[in-house]
Write a structure and sequence with these properties.
Layout lengths: L2 H12 L4 H16 L3 H11 L2 H26 L6 H17 L4 H46 L4 H48 L1
Helix pairs in contact: 1-2, 1-4, 4-5, 4-7, 5-7, 6-7
Length: 202
């Protein structure tokens, strides 16, 4: 395999990385190979392994780098990217899991199971958020009813007002729990991807 063929295959395996990471990796390896003659290029390809193995190492390194950057940003409390940063890390984590060199049927079955688990989790989270939103809407409707009822009975209006506030509070609590739970699941997925990609290297 020539260096151009090697770089072409490496580019194909890295294509799904975020553009900045893809450009950095390809620029680094293109420059690295350009400084070698044919014999040195063959030795370099042997050290790196197949393009798929090299891509797996690169994706794993990108994941580690992204996680370190996120930790540093969290420590400084200067994370401007917010959700985009977490979603970027999650995307690289999924790529790292997919890049692990395993048999194709095992990879396909693992991806199907992972997709089904993620789908169930997303549906549960969606239900939690819907319960929260419905509780807030119901609470607002009860408070509106309390305002109308105040002319008929102050005690009934106060009771309805209390129920409305309680429903809004419950909705907010459920929504906050949903957000915290989704962040917890994202962290678990990222840690699993890190461990799996490190095992795949061995």
């Amino acid at each position: 395999m020539t260096r151009d063929e090697y770089l072409g295959q490496l580019s194909k395996y890295l294509k799904k990385l975020p553009k900045a990471d893809y450009d950095d990796a390809m620029e680094y390896f293109t420059e690295y190979f350009s400084e070698t003659d044919d014999d040195e290029a063959k030795k370099l390809m042997e050290e790196l392994g197949t393009p798929k193995e090299a891509a797996c190492d690169i994706i794993s390194n990108v994941l580690d780098k992204r996680i370190d950057e996120k930790k540093q940003a969290d420590e400084k409390k200067q994370d401007d990217s917010g959700k985009r940063s977490v979603l970027g890390i999650l995307w690289v984590a999924i790529l790292a899991i997919c890049a692990i060199p395993v048999a194709t049927p095992l990879l396909i079955s693992g991806l199907v199971v992972m997709f089904c688990i993620l789908l169930c989790i997303v549906l549960v989270l969606l239900c939690v958020f819907l319960v929260g939103v419905c509780s807030v809407i119901a609470g607002l409707a009860v408070i509106a009813r309390a305002v109308v009822t105040i002319k008929l009975s102050i005690s009934a209006a106060l009771m309805l007002l209390g129920l409305g506030i309680a429903a809004i509070g419950a909705g907010i609590i459920v929504s906050v729990i949903g957000v915290l739970f989704s962040r917890f699941l994202i962290d678990i997925t990222i840690k699993f991807a890190q461990k799996a990609s490190k095992r795949g290297k061995k």
